[in-house]
Write a structure and sequence with these properties.
MutS, DNA mismatch repair protein, domain I, 7-stranded mixed β-sheet, 987 residues, ATP binding, DNA-binding, Nucleotidyltransferase, domain 5, 6-stranded mixed β-sheet, DNA damage, alpha/beta, ATP-dependent DNA damage sensor activity, elongated, 33 strands
Length: 987
């Protein structure tokens, strides 16, 4: 939700018919609106959606009227126009004389603003995407109940059959707007609360269910979780809009702007979190729609029927989709249930600290339009940006989901690694398939357009092309398999061949659908046929329809008439291309095409006979807006015809052209028009049949699309491994974490750009040495080591090769980090408090199978308090959790507190200490002749020197500053006192 837009007010206001009529009559009687059919429609919709941007379709424009027009004009910086209308004569009765008198007819003006239909996408991006408004689109419908495209003639005289709300556009209900980024999912998330509370890691918290979908692709997921985990879930899902139960709306409005309570597992805590994140919030009543299982929106498969709370979440989601999409509401497929135990859990702080997806500006709050939100400034340098070598947009979306939620299923991980290995070993095959994928459409967005009744004829053709492309990929893989078996018989049962065979056998057969599409569609007509909205219908100018006045096309200027005649001629030229479904599709179409062809022959013969009869080679049989079906010829030819008195001249002349009526041509033209309309209706029925064929196979197409995404993802991983020298990790269910010569992919990539090399390091952990304390100088690479260990673990469980010489990794269930210094002012947290909150979350939620990386715990307070906090953290992990932990610190005193045997000398053998499970490692600097450099290489032991003043020198501190710092440090080290005398500093 934005700070300036109350999403709770963007719902439809339900009024009784009597109440609507009363308000409408009052507005007309007081002169607020003119008394016309359109003004009545607009005003009623304004009453129903008082806090939304209302756009009403009038011909080739979307228009806004009355006070909402002022708002639209101001937001979009478009012209605000005025139209004058007259108030009807009324009679008034004088109270004093009881006499009746008539008031003079008066004039008033109403404001309006609008823009062409073709500009809708552009302005929706501003209104909805950037500013978070809700936009209500009222469309015109023709006599067949279909949306009237611009090219279909609808004038103020005939009028559309009706206007009604077509869509309510919110940030989470975008479908196929041209500016949508196909690389990003746009999830609409519904949250259903459970009255029962659960105890999680010692704390009571509410249980809830999540249901989320991307309306543009149809991807649909559900997950059960806890209210205390919502910040992490929101970071993972990144929803564009959240739907809550309407019963929470009053609490939302009461809580807005209130300080955050300390208990974030409370409902107010959730509300404040949503406000901080800038998420658009809507409300729905799940009891209003029909029963979930009786609507056909979700298949009533009892075996996978969701539990009660999940059912409510799906109902909330479905209700809001119906509210927003209306008759374009797609059928929801069976949800993909996300089970927490099957996924590595990465909390919000860790996703940010590791820069998995976004590189965030400190503080993170930026202004977008009228609202503030946490927004990524850039993705440059993130893990995603470095390894993203997917070809398709849907493959990129899968990559994002995989990196933010890796698997813990050992079998699934190893299957993906095997496929990556297959493409790693077969470079030619990989490159060929990647080249093929460059021409693959985002098929699930196309299928979703069919599910929402928006698919075009080109979309049908693209489905056929997509199927044939996928068949080509399968054939190429099978060809590779056959070649290897024939030439290298020992590979027949190799892991690579078996995995490729398993993949190709999983694809659903769709060849029959592709064949039907190819046999039904004229490719040339599809490629040449313009979109209906590209055709000018010559309808009235903006604002005219509001007054209910019929525009007289016959009174337009000659230039307008010429334009219309040009349009008619262009339509004639397009006539042959409009029949994009081949006559062979059905016997009905073939018969109608034959009839139309016969009528065209009769037309050609009639024209030839007239040309011959009057000796007028320029004579043509045409149709225009002004004259209907008529004959046109040159002025010189017309003189001969008029002398013979054989034809009746109509109208004047247009340049060098004269016009004549002809009864036979009028009759033939009328028959042709009827035949074309009949054929057009038959083609629409055939198109509907083709659409239904595609929809019938939507589930199979979705399966194949998922396999192509998996193919794209694994080839991306293989490409990374080949280009960057990564190795295949070995995973098991132990607690070991053995990484030899590990590297941080993002930092290594950055260094390579400046021809520098990355210093690799080992991380070797087992049950007996699961906690590593790492000391060393500032800027010495401690934080990089922590991050790279976590990133390598995430990559491995994503099914990717990893940047190391060797890696053996036991499955990790959760990754936690406490790295970096920042505050959280929105939630009234200082840097130190935020550190404590994140540390507390780690100590509560980490398990023995978790990986924890912590940097500088205890800073931001006194030395004694900081050391105490750091020691208590380590002690708790050792005694109560026992998870793999990397703890970077400058508190070398921790070594003594944990039993490190040699305080200032060399470490004991291999860094072993009395405290079980702990090892000590450090980095250092190399000094030669007064110059120094960071070694970055990890070695056993504790480094008692931070070399902070050296780092300050590199940062460019003034010499006097460095002199004071060096002498002060020396004095404190020698005396242990923190009150150095002036002579000690100046000596």
């Amino acid at each position: 939700m934005s700070a300036s837009i109350d999403s709770a007010k963007t719902e439809e206001t339900v009024l009784t018919p009597d109440a609507e009529l009363s308000e409408l009559n009052k507005a007309i009687a007081t002169g607020v609106i003119p008394d016309s059919p359109l003004s009545r429609e607009v005003y009623i919709n304004w009453l129903r959606f008082p806090d939304c941007i209302l756009l009403t379709r009038v011909g080739k424009f979307y228009e806004s009227y009355f006070e909402p027009a002022r708002q639209l004009s101001s937001i979009l910086n478009i012209k605000l126009a005025q139209k004058t209308y007259k108030l009807a004569n009324t009679e008034t009765e004088s109270k004093s004389t009881k006499s009746k008198s008539k008031t003079k007819e008066t004039e008033r003006k109403f404001p309006f603003a609008g823009f062409p239909v073709a500009a809708l996408d552009k302005y929706l991006k501003i209104l909805v995407q950037e500013l978070g408004h809700t936009v209500v689109i009222v469309e015109e419908y023709d006599e067949e109940g279909s949306i009237a495209y611009v090219g279909k003639k609808i004038t103020a005289a005939t009028g559309p059959k009706e206007r009604r709300v077509y869509r309510v556009v919110t940030p989470g209900t975008m479908i196929d707007e041209g500016w949508l980024d196909g690389n990003e999912s746009r999830f609409l998330l519904a949250i259903a609360m459970n009255d029962q509370r659960a105890v999680v890691d010692g704390d009571a918290t509410a249980t809830l269910s999540l249901a989320y979908t991307d309306p543009s692709t149809g991807e649909f997921f559900t997950k059960d979780t806890f209210l205390s985990n919502m910040e992490d879930e929101l970071a993972r899902i990144a929803p564009r809009e959240i739907v809550l139960d309407r019963s929470l709306r009053a609490a939302w409005q009461d809580d807005a702007g209130e300080p955050l309570r300390s208990d974030e597992s409370s409902i107010p805590g959730l509300f404040k979190l949503l406000q901080v994140l800038g998420v658009h919030v809507s409300f729905a009543d799940p009891s209003r729609p029909p029963p979930l299982w009786a609507t056909g929106v979700l298949s009533p498969d009892v075996s996978v029927r969701p539990q009660t709370t999940e059912n409510v979440a799906i109902a909330l989601l479905r209700h809001h989709l119906q509210y927003a999409l209306r008759e374009s509401m797609p059928a929801l497929t069976q949800p993909n249930r996300q089970v927490a135990e099957s996924q590595m859990q990465i909390d919000a702080a860790t996703l940010q600290a590791l820069e998995i997806r976004h590189a965030l500006r400190p503080g993170g709050l930026v202004a977008i339009g009228e609202r503030q939100t946490i927004s990524p400034v850039s993705s440059r340098g993130t893990l995603l940006s470095v390894i993203s070598k997917t070809i398709t947009q849907s493959g990129h979306r899968l990559l994002i989901r995989t990196l933010t939620s890796p698997s813990t299923d050992l079998d699934l991980i190893n299957k993906r690694l095997a496929l990556v290995q297959s493409f790693f070993d077969r470079e030619d095959l990989r490159e060929e398939i990647r080249d093929i994928l460059r021409n693959v459409e985002d098929i699930m967005r196309i299928i979703q357009r069919f599910r929402t009744r928006r698919g075009s004829s080109r979309d049908i053709w693209d489905v056929g092309i997509w199927i044939r492309t996928i068949e080509g990929i399968i054939a190429r893989i099978n060809e590779e398999i056959a070649y290897e078996i024939q030439n290298y018989g020992n590979r027949a049962k190799s892991e690579g061949v078996l995995r490729l065979q398993e993949l190709t056998r999983t694809f659903a057969p769709l060849g029959e659908l592709a064949t039907k599409i190819e046999e039904s569609i004229d490719e040339n007509a599809i490629l040449w046929n313009p979109a209906p909205d590209d055709i000018d219908d010559g309808s009235e100018d903006p604002g005219e329809a509001m007054l209910g006045e019929e525009s007289d096309l016959l009174d337009k200027k000659e230039a307008k008439e010429t334009k219309k005649e040009r349009i008619e001629r262009e339509k004639q030229e397009r006539e042959d291309r409009q029949w994009w479904i081949l006559p062979s599709f059905s016997q009905e179409l073939q018969s109608l095409h034959d009839d139309l062809a016969q009528l065209k022959k009769e037309r050609d013969k009639l024209q030839a006979d007239l040309v011959k009869r009057f000796s007028t080679p320029q004579l043509k049989l045409v149709k225009s807006v002004r004259y209907g079906y008529h004959i046109q010829m040159t002025i010189s030819e017309a003189t001969k015809v008029e002398k013979a008195r054989s034809l009746e001249r109509i109208g004047g002349t247009s340049g060098k052209i004269a016009y004549f009526a002809h009864g036979a041509w009028s009759a033939l033209g009328a028959k042709t028009e009827i035949a074309m309309e009949t054929l057009s209706m038959a083609q629409r029925r055939a198109e509907r049949d083709l659409r239904n064929l595609v929809i019938e196979q939507a589930d199979a197409i979705q399966v194949n699309a998922g396999l192509i995404d998996e193919l794209d993802l694994t080839m991306c991983f293989a490409q990374n491994a080949k280009e960057m020298g990564w190795v295949r990790p070995s995973l098991d269910n132990t607690s070991d974490l053995n990484i030899v010569a590990g590297r941080h992919p993002s930092i290594e990539s950055s260094l390579l750009q400046s021809s520098r090399s990355f210093t690799p390091n080992d991380t070797l952990m087992t049950r007996s040495n699961h906690l590593h304390i790492i000391t060393g100088p500032n800027q010495g690479g401690k934080s990089t080591l922590l991050r790279q260990t976590a990133v390598i673990t995430i990559l491995a469980q994503s099914g990717s090769f990893v940047p190391a010489q060797k890696a053996k990794i036991g499955i990790v269930d959760k990754v936690f980090s406490r790295i970096g210094a920042r505050d959280d002012l929105w939630r009234d947290r200082s840097t130190f408090m935020l550190e404590m909150v994140e540390t507390a979350a780690i100590l509560k939620h980490a398990t023995p199978k978790s990986l924890v990386i912590m940097d500088e715990i205890g800073r931001g307070t006194t030395l004694q308090a900081g050391v105490s906090i750091a020691y208590s953290t380590l002690n708790y992990i050792l005694n109560n959790i026992g998870c793999k932990t990397m703890f970077a610190t400058h508190y070398h005193e921790l070594g003594r507190m944990l039993g490190y045997e040699d305080e200032y000398g060399s470490p004991t053998k291999k860094g072993k200490i009395a405290r079980k499970g702990v090892e000590y490692w450090c980095t250092d600097v190399d000094e030669v002749d007064g110059a120094f450099s960071y070694s970055y290489k990890l070695k056993p032991g504790i480094n008692h020197k931070s070399h902070a003043i050296k780092a300050a020198r590199l940062a460019g501190m003034p010499d006097s500053f460095l002199h004071t710092a060096e002498h002060t440090l020396k004095y404190i080290q020698q005396t242990g006192r923190f009150d150095p005398p002036a002579e000690a500093i100046s000596s």
